Amino acid sequence: MRDVWYTGTKRLTASQRARLTASGLSVHHVPLIETRLTYNQMPISRFDWLVVTSQTAVPALRDVPRDVKVAAVGEKTKQALETVGFTVALMPETFTGEALFHDLATVVKADEVVLFARGDLANTAHMTQLENIYDWVVYETIGRELTETEVEALEGIEALLVLSPSAVRALTPYLDHFHGTWYAIGEVTERAVREVSTLPVRVPECYTMDALIQCIGEDFS
Fold first, then answer.
1. Per residue in 49-73, pLDDT tens?
2. Is the separation of the CB atoms in 2 and 27 below 8 Å?
3. Structurally, what CATH architecture does the domain formed by 36-141 represent?
4. Rounded to two decimals, what is the model's pTM?
5. Neighbour count for residue 114 (Cβ, 10 Å)
6. Distance between CA 19 and CA 44 in Å, rounded?
7. Residues near 219 by beta carbon (within 8 Å), at least 6 away in sequence
8. Percent of the chain with pLDDT over 70
9. Phi, psi of 52 (to 5 degrees)
């Protein structure tokens, strides 16, 4: 069995873990970040579109009217929104914030108001594509330091599964101890890896956790 670290905040499902184990991988869950709701009030009470780029934001949307049009970054975020009663009107083919805002800019009317519910580290550069958009930080991201035991264990890890630039930043102080392959969930996380590491980086064609698991499973089978 070869050792890999899964660094996401949520635990893998039993089926996801089983698929990795079947590929000869011993999976260690080492969460590198945690998120906390900010409980900030909505900056506006009436709006036409709600933009959500992470399923982590969904618990903060309890008081948002369910009749607004919703733009979701990807399938998992769409599912989380629909579970609590929202109807998703727009989702890009490529699951990135850049693609989401690009598509949104083609359908939002000049008089429509947009509310962007996001984490404190989300990219806000794309907001400039829209005229009437309001910023709402609904959760914050906190990184953590590795323990001495984890730093020692990193020497023998053959693959790191990273789901966000925040996770990459949390690992950056320890990169002298890692000599394996990065598995990044999408191009944004891939760019964060390439900024700090020259080691190989693998990215699935579809930016989902299941696709990432399939990618690493094929590589190690």
1. 999 999 999 999 999 999 999 999 9
2. no
3. 3-Layer(aba) Sandwich (3.40)
4. 0.76
5. 23
6. 45
7. 181, 202
8. 100
9. -130, 120
**Pick from 140, 155, 142, 220: nearest CA to 183:** 220
Which of these CATH numbers, 3.40.50.970, 3.40.50.10090, 2.40.420.20, 3.40.50.410, describes 2-32+146-220?
A: 3.40.50.10090
Length of the chain equals: 221
Beta-bridge partner residues of 134: 115
What does the alpha-carbon distance between residue 61 and residue 86 come to, in Å, rounded to a whole number?
10
CA dist 134 and 116 (Å) reads 6
Question: Which tokens hold the place of 193?
Answer: 């890896």
d(CA 209, CA 64): 28
Q: How far apart are CA 136 and CA 44, in angstroms?
A: 9
Please, which residues bridge with residue 46 across strands?
none
- Write down the residue that tokens 């670290």 correspond to: 5
Phi then psi for 169, rounded to 5 degrees? -60, -40
